[in-house]
Amino acid sequence: MTNNDIFKKLRVALMLRDDNIVEILQLVDFNISKSELGAFFRNEDHPKYMECGDQVLRNFLNGLVIHLRGTKENPKTPAEALASNFKPKPITSVSKSKRPDFKTQQRKKMNNDLSPVKYKNKKKS
Predict the structure, then answer these.
(1) pTM confidence score
(2) Domain carrying residue 29
């Protein structure tokens, strides 16, 4: 398993975005751009793929410890840090009470003027 694989798995497991990772790396005074991060997360076949070095992963893990646990002077619980990463998406859909259900919509479209059809090809029993 390569450093890139470990980095990808941590990113997904902790629900981190590129902005969050850049902030975590800045906690240990390691500056990296979003485009360099994107190169780590690309597919190995991609021409812009870059191998993640030991130094980058080491600094990320050290920054992650500070991000989750805090410093000795200002400790915090990991649950608070993980909750700050998760930002729920605002709900923009129409509520169900305002929208008629599917069956009522179909009944409105149906033509009630037709009489029932008698089938001529019915089997005689």
Answers:
(1) 0.64
(2) 3-85
